[in-house]
Design a protein that fits this description.
Elements lengths: L51 E6 L14 H9 L18 E3 L10 H19 L3 E6 L5 H11 L5 E5 L28 E7 L4 H9 L3 E5 H4 L4 H8 L4 E7 L21 H14 L1 E8 L9 H19 L1
Parallel strand pairs: 1-2, 1-3, 3-8, 4-5, 4-7, 5-6, 7-8
Helix pairs in contact: 1-8, 2-3, 6-7, 7-8
The protein binds manganese (II) ion.
Manganese (II) ion binds next to loops.
Length: about 325
Amino acid sequence: MTPNRPDPAAPSRSGGARLRLLPEGLDDLPWELPRGFLGLYGAGATPEGSDTWILPVPYEATTSFGGGTRNGPQAIIDASRYIELYDHETDRDPSLSGIYTFPQLELARGNAAEAIAELEAAYGRVVEEAGDRRVLMLGGEHSVSSPAIAVQARRCENRLSVLQFDAHLDLRATFEGSPYSHACALARVMDQVDIVAVGLRGISQEEIEVARERPSVTTIMAEEVASGDAWIDQAVDRLGEDVYITFDVDYFDPSLVPSTGTPEPGGGEWYPTLRLLRKVFESRRVVAVDVVEHAPLPGLHAPDFLVAKLVYKMVGYWSRS
Ligand SMILES: [Mn+2]
């Protein structure tokens, strides 16, 4: 497969001067595409020249069944280099507004509390520096979402709504002795935000009781997602004006995304998911996005490509709103 980027000798796609990363006189050799999201180069791949910043956080400490989410961000970024930049659904090229990819953030090992505190501080500084830019974080396991949601909740004047795509509620107070487990990601922020969770199908009794006694938690089960589009408006109607999207890829059916720690049968499909996302980006102010729990499987690259395309679809919807 040929990378679908334009002639590397052509000028920068964003119109600015081509970023010179190679020794003078050697930039016409057949180099691979840069290792950032979509393989972009030029001014539209720099922090200043980009409206979207991708923050890879390959943190993995507590995944319970299959591991490998530490390899998620790199697999998503590698696959993204083969995505068509033109998006026929919206008839435009969302990459033209620039996408910068940070190096991976390496958090403290061995101490979950320390790592999560470190991420909260780092994420806070990134969004501060980002200003009006869109920040999209790639996990890693789902525990990376709680510090990011906490930061965004503090920054919002309105009460923040979290739209959670997930097979699981992640509302356990503790799991295997830790409050920082991926299974507790949303419990740690549920006092600060409203939660709309969609695609649920692996829930503990403790979690459903917590959800039932809290009007701030809306649950939409996988069976509803599988039976027509009524759930899409139900989900959107429950969201406030400001929305954080946390996308655990185990939301998808394992026939589409088997590459995750706890693949549950009966998950979401591609097009209805895009219909909900498009509606949310069109009708709400999305403050930030994360995509988590992708654990790439050697030799199976379709899920890497799907998750990369999901990220690019969101960038596209977001950059129109
Ligand atoms: Mn999950």
